[in-house]
Design goal:
about 15% strand, single chain, 8-stranded parallel sheet, alpha/beta
Length: about 270
């Protein structure tokens, strides 16, 4: 597995992690157990960055993650997110405490504002986040779905901590962030966490250069993940509960293309 620095922290996280949107919905206990097994297999493969949110499956996603990591907590980098309606100070604290209980842990490695909320002052939100850092309940602060201007406002609202990441949609089907968001993150050394990098399976793989798939012995999904993470400031969190898909994702960055080849893809 390839590893990259998180922001300017010195902390290394895997280039390919695991997203958990959709995990936590299960009609049977056996399906829940399968979700736990999938996360554990991903951890074995080196995908130790696991991203979740209080919003996912009304908290059940965090519960599944908590069960999956309970015997290997120190090896896993857990990222979770506070919902935009919970950005007042007392709500941030309450939401974090609830996430900690569901995750079964005493700390969250990366706590992110899931979406900006212009109705709530960013200074109030960031003040609460720094309070959580001081109390040892979270290690790092991130944002999600923020513009460069919004990220700058969040950074300016902090007194001692840094914004280390911005989680945002990024795929072959949606790469509008390359105009402003990605250059900003590169310039400011903020990690861009790409969610839905495979566009939830909707990308037409027939458009991918066949010669590159053959040359590097990559599947279409692997080539796409390789392209999404071609910039060293980017890590990706594809969601997968299928063991074969997890194994496919984990080996997607075992080789790297040259810049001219990347340009052939998009």
């Amino acid at each position: 597995m390839e590893y990259r620095e998180l922001g300017k922290t010195g902390e290394k996280v895997p280039t390919i992690g695991m997203g958990t949107w959709g995990i936590g919905f299960y009609p049977t206990l056996e399906e829940r157990a399968q979700q736990v097994r999938a996360l554990r297999r991903g951890m074995e493969l080196g995908m130790t960055l696991i991203d979740t949110a209080e919003m996912y499956a009304s908290g059940r996603s965090e519960e599944v993650v908590g069960e999956a990591v309970q015997e290997n907590r120190s090896r896993v980098f857990i990222a979770s997110k506070v919902s935009p309606e919970h950005l007042h100070r007392t709500d941030v604290i309450k939401a974090c405490n609830a996430s900690l209980r569901r995750l079964g842990t005493s700390y969250i490695d990366l706590y992110q504002v899931h979406w900006p909320n212009p109705a709530i002052p960013i200074n109030e939100t960031m003040g609460a986040m720094e309070e959580l850092v001081r109390e040892g309940k979270i290690r790092y602060i991130g944002v999600s779905n923020f513009s460069p201007a919004g990220t700058t406002d969040a950074r300016n609202a902090l007194t001692k901590s840094e914004i280390v990441s911005n989680q945002i949609v990024y795929s072959l089907a949606n790469h509008t962030i390359e105009a402003e968001v990605l250059p900003y993150c590169v310039r400011e050394k903020i990690t861009l966490i790409a969610y839905s990098p495979l566009d939830r399976g909707r990308i037409d793989s027939s458009a991918l250069p066949r010669e590159l798939l053959t040359k590097y012995r990559l599947t279409p999904a692997q080539l796409i993940l390789n392209w999404v993470t071609r910039n060293e400031q980017v890590v990706a969190i594809p969601k997968a509960t299928n063991i074969a898909h997890l194994e496919e994702n984990a080996s997607s960055v075992s080789v790297r293309l040259d810049s001219s080849e990347y340009r052939q893809i998009a």
